[in-house]
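Hello,

I think I submitted the copper (II) ion job twice by accident. Can you confirm which output corresponds to this input? Input:
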Amino acid sequence: MEKITLNKLRNNYIIISSEYVIRIVDVTTHQDYVTLVRPIIPKAMNMYKSILSVQAFVWLTCVVIVYGWIEEIPIKASLDDCFNERRTFLNTSDSIKDNFHGFCIQKYRLKLVKKFWSDLNNETGHWIEELLRMSEREARQKRDARHLRIRKEIRVATDRERSDYFTCMRLLKEDTSIEPNRFDALGIIHQRMADDVHHGAAFLPWHRILLTIIENACRQKVPSAVLLYWDSRLDDQMQRPSQSVFFSRHLIGECNGKVTDGPYANWVTPSGDLVRNCALEGELFNHRDIRALKTRTRLEQISEPFSVPPYDFEIKHGEVHLFVGGTLAPVEIAAFAPEFYLHHAFVDCMWEEFRENQKENNVDPQTDYPVDYGDESHNPTSLMGFGRLRNIHGLSDMFTSRIYRCEKPVTKCSVDADCRSRFLYCNRDYLCASKTKFAYEKDMETHMEPPRMRPHQRIHRGKRQAMNNTEPLSKFDLLHKIKQNGREEAPISELNAIDQVCPSIDVGKTVQNLFDINGVADSRMWVFIPVKVIYQRNMHQKPFNSFLVRNGKVREGADIYDKKLYKTLGQSLKNVPRHNKQNCKNMDGVFTKVNVHSDGLNYIGTYRDFAVVDARQPITTSVIYMGVKSPSKRATEVLLTAYDPCGNVCQAFCRTAKGTMEKCSGSLKVTQKLLHRPNLYGEDYGKAVDMMWGIPHDGGYPRFYDRKIFIEFVCF
Ligand SMILES: [Cu+2]
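Support: Only one job matched these inputs. Its output is below.
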């Protein structure tokens, strides 16, 4: 930007201008008072420029001054209805959970998706018909169980089976004979039909067909390929599933930001780079969930809209999407993430176990279509969007008796002693669990021919071998790794640095947002608004090791931060209504997170971040900056929500005209407004932070402008 700095105007303002943008900056506080100055007509701009250098003050009166503005809007009716409907499942004292809440928001967003994208190209349609015919042909040839394709857990499958699987997916992605490529063409089908096939009875049968379609597509490339599934219970058994070997270059690649290793390294999806953000929210499947599923015998009991947690399989499966995060999280783009099919193949296999259970209980799974099926697209006779297939056809036994079957997952070590995989081990509960990537690599190293060692390596060898599979790498192992990577000697200072990033320490990860708006990913289309979070200490917080001392004796019990110790504080916090948080786990650790989401109400786009709060404090606060679509072309309507670490919905408060804070729904309209101060958002992250702070250059006091925060969340 070409910058013209003028002499000081009135007070301490400076004008910086370029061709279309002019800003006035307060020199003392460094604040952007006037964010955008636009000439009324472009021609006039040149005129202004000439006047500018001579008579700036006169010029100021001829321009339009625009500020970022935020106001509250009523909650969208369909969202409100959904929230109310969900609330009927709860006791009045229960708090609303993030999965309930997120479910409604997703439903709303899928309606937008439907409006925005409706067409499908013909080429894809013809290809789908061809793929469906493959299944028909296969089903017609009478087969016995020996000829069925066998879908296996990705870690239990053989190296050959895994390589077939990854190869065919890669070949589909590389084949651009159908736009944009054969892999993403199927993802687009999932996107365009998302609204019709989620939140209702057709969810399981429809996804079963989609899986057979991609399996057939895969076999067009690699005839021996069969889908694999991801049993995330194996990772749920781990202390830190994000360190599972599943999320490593040995299997599907890392899950921290852009995927740069493994078979899907550097994949570009129609919504930008392939991204994962695992373990920030959601949860994996666990044995309890699957057992719960098998206590029901009717499809209606595990399907939307009739089912209730913990039997709601669609909501439960959504938690896994959220756990992986990134591309897999928003339904409308989830199928662009290759792990989508691994996860859904498992959902499908668990549904098959449910169906077997139905048969044992004299329910015919082929006719058990829910009476309460949801929207019309879930009607048993509605077309699936795949040739002539109707929803009810998805319940046919044909698929699992003629085409494929699922190999039983490995769960108990008593059944499968070694869990049948080098990626798995038997844990203390005698359950199969995934190895961490570190343990896996170490095991592979020890099983290999020992390389000729240099003296310094020999010293630590015994120690390394003695270590348990699940133990994180020691300093020595890390040093050893550094050396293997070609560095000669790691100095002591580096050892300390390793400690800080050592995988055994739970290092907080940040979110890689997609910055996707209506299918175009670019962070320049976003602006940032400050959001404050007020958090009250969780009552299930384990006491910290800081106790009061009386007469020289440490008084164990409540830690000194606990409000229970203090009469006045206890009294003031006591009267604040709190939600029933029975289900929350025992919490420990000195910091915790409040997840904040921004979801477009008139655009398709989400932004996620979290506020880190001090878990010790009886009550504390934190400020973060949330991305929303830039209102430069059209007003932005957005819903902001926040969830405490236990998944409870926090109450939003919005600023009133008087400057006070009042309860609100979190639905906001972000616009540009004439001559309205203060500016309430930053055009980028840095500007948002700068807007909130008056930082003097002379080392003086940095001032925080609290009243520029339009929305706050109270998590009590
Ligand atoms: Cu789906």
